[in-house]
Each structure stands twice: as structure tokens, then as C-alpha cells.
Design a protein that fits this description.
The complex is a heterodimer of chains A (376) and B (326). Chain A has 376 residues and is of the alpha/beta class. Chain A has helices at 25-39, 63-71, 79-91, 103-106, 110-117, 120-123, 153-157, 170-182, 193-197, 230-244, 263-272, 287-299, 321-327, 331-341, 346-362; strands at residues 20-24, 43-47, 72-74, 95-100, 133-138, 163-165, 187-192, 199-203, 215-218, 223-227, 249-253, 256-258, 275-282, 308-312. The radius of gyration of chain A is 21 Å and the shape is globular. Chain B has helices at 10-30, 47-55, 70-75, 80-87, 122-135, 153-164, 196-199, 213-228, 260-268, 271-281, 287-310; strands spanning 62-65, 111-114, 141-146, 169-175, 178-179, 182-183, 205-209, 234-239. Classes of the chains: A alpha/beta (376), B alpha/beta (326). The complex binds thiamine diphosphate (TPP) and magnesium ion. Residues 146-148, 176, 178-179 of chain B line the site of magnesium ion.
Chain lengths: 376, 326
């Protein structure tokens, strides 16, 4: 019904990236935004700070200059209202990307997201669609404390009708954001603040990473670690360390929390017999809990031991750096839990563990990279 | 401009503002040491609002603040040592290090809440006013918020209810012209003055020069009087300017969102300098008295920082405490 003609007549070839560069997650996301706006003039961006000098951690840099204030919409501080506005634009043929600098602010928008965005296509039997992307940022940083760091993915992931994506690498962040913007569904896109600083190989040009579910990012045969967002990075670190102790961990990036496709995780657990989940949110009623429930329902016989859950303790995030270290699990937590799950004596793991502990001690707790010395 | 002798305790106002300034300048000076590892939003340039409003309050009145809460907290009598310790993430902080600079509270002094979520504390102030009315305490609640917060739906819901029930609440809109880097004219229609937000709900609204402590004190006094007499809420719009950056205590961003000329213009209207000149001109503040005041305030601030440095960090063992009240 809405003008397909407005999509560029000859889109650049997709799926065959020509070159890769090392980019930060923030730059990868900016590329995704720019490519989508270039290819489809229905795409526009709105949010607080999208035109300010720092451009949402750099992820909207250049967009105002290229597309103007008509498509790069600075908004008042009115999260709930603006979410309704975005939904209205979406059902009327546009493709808004709404940004919140913290997922915590999106709490103000729950009514619109849950009652309108998630249900409109279903209610109207597809006559209306809500091709909306809401980018929101999670994760710790410089003592931001209890209301500026929350990993609220399970609040969104429990709502039928929403798509919930958590990118783990710069390359996926770009491909998944493009897929989200091109999706006909409302997508909650949760970016860990650490990801903006993470550097990695990112293919040039347009490509879209299908939002079809978890994927194995490191093969292994002794246990499965299913992780989300930044915990994928920690899981890979843990897997490296476990490998030096002769343990082969398979790491699965959950990536898409809803609609959830359990198959890759089930297949993995059927091979390894052991499951550990690691997510950035709270343990209780978190995504990890859901994954464990599904695996015990559907692959109970494959499990050789009880599944292990690693997430945040049931506590608000404290501001004090003295409390942050204990609050956030790291690769070392995963390493220790894996050792226990496999029933290995600590003596066998000691050398690898010490090496990992030394590595972790080098990584700052409350900043994504060592050079950061003030709020970021 | 009224004579300062007409203002109750003009010297007290000055002392309160100078104290806030010295505390915040010390934070800015030492922030680079990286021991204050939490976001810090300074009120340098906006002290007259907090000092003027608090001067009109009784100690039993209550205030509800925002991410930019230092000045409100200090002016209301919040404990300085507990504030500095909180910013250092220490156990002796006003939240035991759990909240950081954006969550300052001191219920004993009537500082009931500071919320890092924009607009979040406004209706809570209205609720406190409802409680005061129900209990007949004669108290007044103050909701401090910025020009940015005035865009949040919750303000409008709060104004409506406060007007409906004639609640003893003072809405203090601290208009510093910016939300982070975004100026007011990019967020609100230029033809609608902020005070109209109150009038739309039948709430008397007054716009004052927020850099004139005496004017703020006088307007707040009128509003508090109305509230205490059961005449309901007031919206006080205080036009002011934040001289520091939004959340960078020690830096000035040369990124074009504010011109040097604008900053200089407002620096020339600094509320502290202005009151000081006036006090000296009217013979209320002598050189000797000023030197003594500075000495005693500096000692107090030094002691608060020394206490914070010496205090222990909170133990993770107690981190679960008070999650559920027993
Ligand atoms: C609900 C919500 N949205 C956005 C933010 C991010 N934020 C923090 S401070 C700020 C500026 C608020 O401006 P204003 O209310 O004028 O207060 P000021 O900082 O100028 O004192 C914003 C947008 C937030 N904390 N909460
Ligand atoms: Mg402001």
C-alpha cells in the first residue's frame, strides 16, 4: 500500500560485502543508519541528542548534514509521547528509528510499546504494520548507578509482538540494525554501552544479518554457553581460557530474544550435554531463565548435569565502584562455573584460571577502555 | 531591585550560595583525580534558585530534586559530609554509595528524593503535598525541575492534580535554557512562555530572574505563603544559566552549542558576584566578614573531602540490605 517506489530503484548489491574495516560498534551502527536512510527515504531518526554535538555517541554523525532536520528529528523530553508519535508515523508508511540514550528512559514508553506497537499488526490482521525500531542503550559506565544502567531486555522480550535484538559485535550490530530497520515489525534494539567502544571487522556496504535466532560463534564440545550482548564477549574470553585447560566450550550468541528460536541452542546442548546461560540482565525471570526452561522441556534427556545460570544478582545496580566489581559477572565467573559444572578439580584449572584472573584484573570495571576518565 | 535590607537574611542567602559554589568548585578541581566515579551535574551559576527557594522554607518542608541536585540538597540543609562521601562511592555517603551524585537524599533535612530520571520526582512532590494536606501539617513540598523536564507528560499530569486538589506544592522550573546540548528553542515553541504551563491549569505562575537571589526569595515567599494558607500550588519559573557543562565538572566543550559570547554574558550576570557587590555596596558585607566566611566555609569543605577520603567503601556483603523492608 505504501509507495515502494520511494525505495532507491537500484539498491547496491546486498549480501556480498566487498571489504572489511576495523570499526567501533558506534561507527558500525552509524553506517547502518546512514545506509538505510540513503536507500529508503521513509527511514527517519528521532530522539534526544540526535542532532547534538556528540550525536548519540557518534551513531547519528553526519545524518543531519545529509538528510536535514526533516528526517533527523530532535525531540523534546517526552519519551512516552514520542513513542506514540513514532508508532503513528510507522503505521502511516514511514520507518522511524527512535533512540533512547538509556533503556531506563524507555520505561516511560511501555504503554505505547506494549499496547500499540506490539499489538497493532495482530489486531488489524496485518492491515496495519508498525515498522519501528527503538534503539536503547544498556550497561554500566562510570558509576551511573541504579537508574541509568539497567538491562531491561526481559521486560520487552516477554511481550508477544515485539522483536527484541541484542547485538554482540560491531559487524552484527550493523547487519542486525539494517535488518531491524528493514523489518515490518517493531524491533527493540538493545545496545550495550561497551559495544559502542568495541572494535572489530565490519564489512563495508549494505548487508543485513537475519534476525532468525541464536548462532554459534565458537564451536566446542564440552559445554554450551548461551550468552547475550556483552556477555558474549565475556563468554568468548572464558572459552579461550577454558581451552588452555583442555576444555572445549561452545559459545552461542542468543542475539534475538524474541521471537525466540531455540533450535541452535537445543542442537548445541544435544551435542555438549551441558548448558550455561550468561546474560546482561537479572537472573530471576531473565532470558537465561527462559532458555534453561526451554532446554529442560525439550532436551532434558541430553543434559548430563543441571544447567547453570549467570546473570546479575537480584539487586539494583550500585553506583559505587567498590560494589560494581561484585555485581557484574565476568569471564572469570563463567570460567569458575564451567569448571564446577564439569566437575573438574580446581588444581587442574589453576594455571588457566590465574592467567585469566590476571587478564580480567587489567580490564577496568566501570569504563569500556582504560583511557576514559570522566562520564562518557 | 529591592534593597537587600528588605530581604530577610540577605547575608544568609549569600552564605548559602557561596557554600554551594565552593563545594562544587572543589568537586570540579578534584574530579580529574578519578576518585569521584559517578556522573556529576554542577549548578554553578544557578545557586540563587536553590538558595532563594530554601530561604523561604521551614526546615520541616520537603524538597524533591533532579540529577542536578547538589545545590537543592545543600541549600535545604542536606549533610555536606554525607554528600561528598556519596559522590566518592563511600559507605558513609547519604545512600551508602548506592546512588552517587544524582540520588542525593537527606530525609532529616527534608531532602526526600533526587531522581536521575527527568520529571520523575515531580509527581512524588505532589504526593508529599497531598500527604501534608491530608495530615494537616501545614507543610509545603517543592518540586524542582529543569526546562527539559517541563516537556515530560508527567509534569502536566502533576500540575492538573495539584491544581484540582489545591495542594501545598511549589513547582520550581529552573530554566537554564538547555537540555544537555539542546537549546530550549529546538524543543518548545518560542511563542509560548514557560509560565503558561501553569496558567493552563489555573495555577498562578510567576517568572523571576533566577540569578537574583533576592527576587527568587521574595517570589518563593509569596508562593509558600499561598500554599500554607491553603490557596494551592504555584509555578515559579526561574530563568538562569548553567556556567559549567552539563555533566563534565572540569571541562568546557568548545563544540559550538553555546557561544563564548553567551557564556560571557551570563558570567557577567553571575548570581554570586551580583549579590556580593550588592552586599558590599549596602555595607552588609565587610571585607573582614567576607574573609572570615570564606575561611570557615573552606575549612568545612576541606573536612568533608577529607572525611570522604578516609571513609571505607561499602561492603558487597551488605549490598542486599533494605531491598525489602522487614
Ligand atoms: C526520562 C529521561 N530522559 C532523558 C534523560 C537524559 N537526560 C539527563 S539530564 C537531561 C537534561 C535535562 O534537562 P533539564 O530538565 O533542563 O535539566 P538541566 O540538566 O538543564 O538541569 C537529559 C535529557 C533522563 N535522565 N531521563
Ligand atoms: Mg535545562
Amino acid at each position: 500500500m505504501f509507495a515502494e517506489r520511494r525505495i532507491a530503484a537500484e539498491p547496491p548489491p546486498s549480501g556480498v560485502p566487498t571489504e572489511s574495516r576495523i570499526l567501533s560498534g558506534a561507527d558500525a551502527l552509524r553506517e547502518a543508519m546512514a545506509l538505510c536512510m540513503e536507500r529508503d527515504e521513509r527511514v527517519f531518526v528521532m530522539g534526544q541528542g540526535v542532532t547534538d554535538p556528540f550525536r548519540v555517541f557518534g551513531t547519528t554523525r553526519g545524518l543531519l548534514e545529509t538528510y536535514g532536520p526533516g528526517r533527523v528529528v530532535e525531540t523534546p523530553l517526552a519519551e512516552n509521547g514520542m513513542t506514540g508519535v513514532a508508532i503513528g508515523a510507522a503505521i502511516s508508511g514511514q520507518r522511524p528509528v527512535l533512540i533512547h540514550m538509556r533503556a531506563d528512559f524507555a520505561l516511560l514508553t511501555m504503554e505505547q510499546l506494549v499496547n500499540n506497537a506490539a499489538k497493532t499488526a495482530w489486531l488489524t490482521q496485518g492491515k496495519l504494520q508498525v515498522p519501528l525500531v527503538v534503539r536503547m542503550f544498556i550497561g554500566r559506565g562510570w558509576g551511573q548507578g541504579p537508574a541509568h544502567t539497567q538491562s531491561l531486555e526481559s521486560l520487552f522480550a516477554m511481550i508477544p509482538g515485539l522483536t527484541v535484538v541484542m547485538p554482540a559485535t560491531p559487524a552484527d550490530a550493523k547487519g542486525q540494525l539494517i535488518a531491524a530497520i528493514e523489518s515490518p515489525n517493531p524491533v527493540i534494539f538493545l545496545e550495550h554501552r561497551w559495544l559502542h567502544f568495541t572494535r572489530g571487522l565490519v564489512p563495508a556496504g549494505h548487508y543485513s544479518t537475519p534476525l532468525d535466532g541464536p548462532k554459534v560463534v565458537r564451536p566446542g564440545c564440552d559445554l554450551t554457553i548461551a550468552a547475550t550482548s556483552h556477555m558474549v564477549v565475556e563468554a568468548l574470553r572464558a572459552a579461550d581460557a577454558l581451552a588452555t585447560a583442555g576444555i572445549s566450550a561452545e559459545v552461542v550468541d542468543v542475539a534475538v530474544l524474541r521471537p525466540f528460536n531455540p533450535e541452535p541452542i537445543l542442537m548445541s546442548v544435544r551435542r555438549t550435554g551441558r548448558l550455561m546461560v550468561a546474560d546482561t540482565g537479572w537472573n530471576t525471570l531473565g532470558m537465561g531463565a527462559e532458555i534453561i526452561a526451554i532446554v529442560t522441556e525439550q532436551a532434558f534427556g541430553a543434559l548430563t548435569g543441571p544447567p547453570v545460570r549467570v546473570g546479575l544478582p537480584d539487586l539494583p545496580a550500585p553506583s559505587s565502584p567498590a560494589l560494581a566489581g561484585d555485581y557484574y559477572p565476568t569471564a572469570l565467573t563463567l570460567f569458575d562455573r564451567a569448571g564446577a559444572l564439569l566437575g573438574l578439580p580446581p588444581s587442574r584449572l589453576a594455571v588457566s584460571r590465574n592467567r585469566l584472573a590476571a587478564l580480567i584484573a587489567e580490564i577496568p570495571v566501570d569504563v569500556p577502555e582504560a583511557g576514559i576518565t570522566s562520564p562518557f | 531591585m529591592p534593597m537587600l535590607t528588605d530581604i530577610p537574611s540577605a547575608l544568609g542567602l549569600y552564605r548559602a550560595m557561596l557554600r554551594i559554589r565552593l563545594v562544587e568548585e572543589t568537586i570540579a578541581d578534584r574530579y580529574a583525580q578519578q576518585r569521584m566515579r559517578c556522573p556529576v551535574h554542577l549548578s554553578i551559576g544557578q545557586e540563587a534558585v536553590a538558595a532563594g527557594v530554601s530561604a523561604a522554607l521551614a526546615s520541616s518542608d520537603q524538597i524533591f530534586s533532579t540529577h542536578r541536585c547538589h545545590a537543592h540538597y545543600l541549600a535545604k540543609g542536606g549533610d555536606l559530609t554525607a554528600m561528598i562521601a556519596e559522590i566518592h562511592g563511600k559507605e558513609t555517603g547519604c545512600c551508602g554509595g548506592r546512588g552517587g551524585s544524582m540520588n542525593l537524599v537527606d530525609p532529616d533535612a527534608g531532602v526526600m528524593m533526587s531522581s536521575p530520571t527527568i520529571g520523575s520526582s515531580i509527581p512524588v512532590a505532589v504526593g508529599a503535598a497531598l500527604s501534608m494536606q491530608q495530615r494537616g501539617t501545614g507543610g509545603v513540598a517543592v518540586a524542582y525541575f529543569g526546562d527539559g523536564a517541563s516537556e515530560e507528560g508527567v509534569l502536566h499530569e502533576s500540575l492538573n492534580f495539584a491544581a484540582l486538589r489545591r495542594l501545598p506544592v511549589l513547582f520550581v522550573l529552573e530554566n537554564n535554557g538547555y537540555s544537555i546540548f539542546t537549546p530550549l528553542d529546538q524543543r518548545q515553541p518560542a511563542q509560548r512562555p514557560l509560565s503558561d504551563l501553569g496558567r493552563a491549569h489555573g495555577i498562578p505562575a510567576e517568572t523571576v530572574d533566577g540569578n537574583d537571589a533576592g527576587a527568587v526569595r521574595a517570589a518563593a515567599g509569596r508562593a509558600v505563603g499561598r500554599a500554607r494558607r491553603g490557596e494551592g500550588p504555584t509555578l515559579l519559573v526561574c530563568d538562569t544559566y548553567r556556567q559549567s557543562e552539563h555533566c563534565e565538572p572540569a571541562k568546557v566543550f568548545d563544540v559550538g552549542y553555546r557561544t563564548a559570547a553567551e557564556r560571557e554574558e551570563w558570567a557577567a550576570r553571575c548570581p554570586l558576584t551580583r549579590l556580593r557587590h550588592q552586599l558590599i555596596a549596602e555595607g552588609i558585607l565587610t571585607k573582614e566578614a567576607e574573609a572570615a566566611l570564606l575561611r570557615s566555609l573552606r575549612t568545612e569543605v576541606e573536612e568533608a573531602f577529607a572525611d570522604a577520603d578516609a571513609a571505607p567503601f561499602p561492603s558487597p556483603v551488605n549490598a542486599m540490605e533494605h531491598l525489602h523492608v522487614r
